[in-house]
Amino acid sequence: MNLKKIIRLSFLINILQILLIIVIIFYINYAPSQDMFLLLYGSAGLTTFNSMLAVVSYYFLIAREDRKDVQETIQNLENLNATLREQRHDYLNHIQVIYGLMELEEFEEAKHYMEPVYEDLLKVGKALKTSHPAVNALLQAKMQKGQNEDVSVYLEVKSNLKDISMEPWELCKVLSNVIDNGFTALMQKENMRKLYIDIGEDQANYSFYIYNNGPVIPPDVLPNIFIQGFSTKKEEGHGMGLAIVKKTLEKVGGSIQVDSNVDKTCFTILVPKV
């Protein structure tokens, strides 16, 4: 049974509960006590079933989100592997060109040729600094997404995350949701879109600062963005991402908070070391 069917069934049972309550109120002064007893038990049964259905709906949605996150992690790893293979092939060609230019003593031309090649190498190198291939693949995927969507992504990795107290795919779920939230906010700007990802550590925690120069989050919205089901978007499926992020972090003793002003919106994530 898919999520839409579960929600529709839950709605139908709620309607039946309301009708039962109306019938009970009507029968209070007229129905025999035995009939009244059956009505009360029927209402209690429907209420219990509907509560169980709500729990099933929630865990069905969580399981669906987890499957999607694992699939996304696998896809990111495959994309990173493909990127590295392409770069290895391209760099062999670049070396041949640079060697040829130097043989011809075209040193200035060789320098100009090397600059974009070096920049391309640095972009991938920045995303390969942690000890978790899945996280490296995610960071590389988000940097590529920035290029595709005209967003300047600045990545600073000052920790290898070796002793983090989360499974790599769960960390990817957390980072992906928050980073994508930044991309969505930046789409409201016409130009000069900037997204920063700063990863570090202290003695007790790993820190992730993810901030952007998008529009300020209104004060009346800010306290609610980690509440399950809350969303400023109307499309089906929104309103779960940041709530799931918060729950995932709290499960390992981590935390997330957000600050927003006219200059930037910053999500601060802390994850304890093992």
Automatic annotation (TrEMBL):
The keyword Hydrolase does not apply. One of its GO terms (biological process) is phosphorelay signal transduction system. GO terms for molecular function: identical protein binding; kinase activity. Pfam families: HATPase_c, SPOB_a. It comes from the Bacteria. InterPro entries: HATPase_C_sf (IPR036890), HATPase_dom (IPR003594), His_kinase_dom (IPR005467), SPOB_a (IPR039506). Residues 60-94 form a coiled coil. Residues 86-274 form the Histidine kinase domain. This is Spo0B domain-containing protein.
